[in-house]
Amino acid sequence: MTLEFEKLTHDLEKMALSSVRQQARRDQLVADYRQTLNQFAEEWIAIQTALSTAKRKSDDKLYRSARPFDDIHPLNAAIDPQTPPATATIIATDGSQIMPDRHAAYLYYLINVGGIIYPHGSGEPPQVFSEPEIVYPDDTDEAIINFNSNSGTVSIERDLSEIGTLADKTFANRHLPAPILSIVDQRLLYWPIGNQGNVDNTAVTKWGKSMTKVKDAGALLAGYIDRPGTIGVTTLLRSLSAENRSDFDWKTLGTKAATGGLIDTDIFREILQPGQRSKLFVNISKPNEGFPNQDEANEVCFFYLNPGVSGKQIARVDVPRWVADLPDGVENVHALIISQCRIIGDYPYVLARADEMAVVGRQDASELNFMLDIIMQRHGIASDITAKQGSKELARGGRTRHDGL
Q1: pTM score > 0.90 for this model?
Q2: Which residue, of 28, 69, 245, 332, has the fewest CB within 10 Å?
Q3: Residue 139's domain spans which residues?
């Protein structure tokens, strides 16, 4: 042990007292926002006016908000799930990777997409799958020099593989019992930042094409976010509370600093009981304005959900407009996700199983490298890792480099 815990006792006590004060402030903020939520629950004209004013006065680069999808349910609605369809098909994917390591013997990275096809209500066993892909430079000097082994790029490729595989599996299985729900373990409003700090528009286009392919298969699509940190509804409420306030700072609207650090889940945690969802909202943001340019049906909407059997854990579920426009689209997504959560408690079983099929652990990486060594040696190539990597592996194996130390 190297950490001297007794030296932290005083600071931990101070940290606890600070947390108590923060919680008191947060509770008051939640109460204030809930009052605004209840006050404007069905004031649709006031809501539209506030959104128009915010759009006009806020900083376009910072502004993110939420707009009610319709006026069927009030802002403070807590909607119970319907009985799920007797039969349905649920397809889920998740991804994992081995990142490139410049200290390792061979230059490569690996992406593994795992998934499941779950026959809801049939009594048949689900089908699971795993699809690994290893990426490496070819044998030209230019390819080796330009091989993009940046971890951010690999993460984007993993994301695209996740939804691309989901779309392919959905389309290939479109004959299975309807409704088909395809679900991915992340947001649908994909907006990756590339190497130069700019949006990777090529990746956004590929993501949108995969969404459209799911639509063309006649399926429903959802993105499940377990611990969302978004503030769209909170920003909407802040806009509503700005009426007749001359000191209101419109330029910071859409930032967490403007909400006092409060996020949407802080509000819906006090509203939604287990199994219930919020009303449907549309994401207002620059990225969501661009999505419909490729396919107007891909505009991203969302609702908040209490997926547990008890407690106040809140998730967010993204759906594209084509799902929102279907008569029973959102209701079926809601009901099927809750039915999946009831299998293991408070998280969709299909996503947990997809993660299990996708995850690449340290042992997997070691075995892959061993396999690479065998194949390389067969072709007369000797492995060679850096001294730094060798020292790390020695230390992490529970041994020191010097006897007696």
Answers
A1: no
A2: 245
A3: 88-358
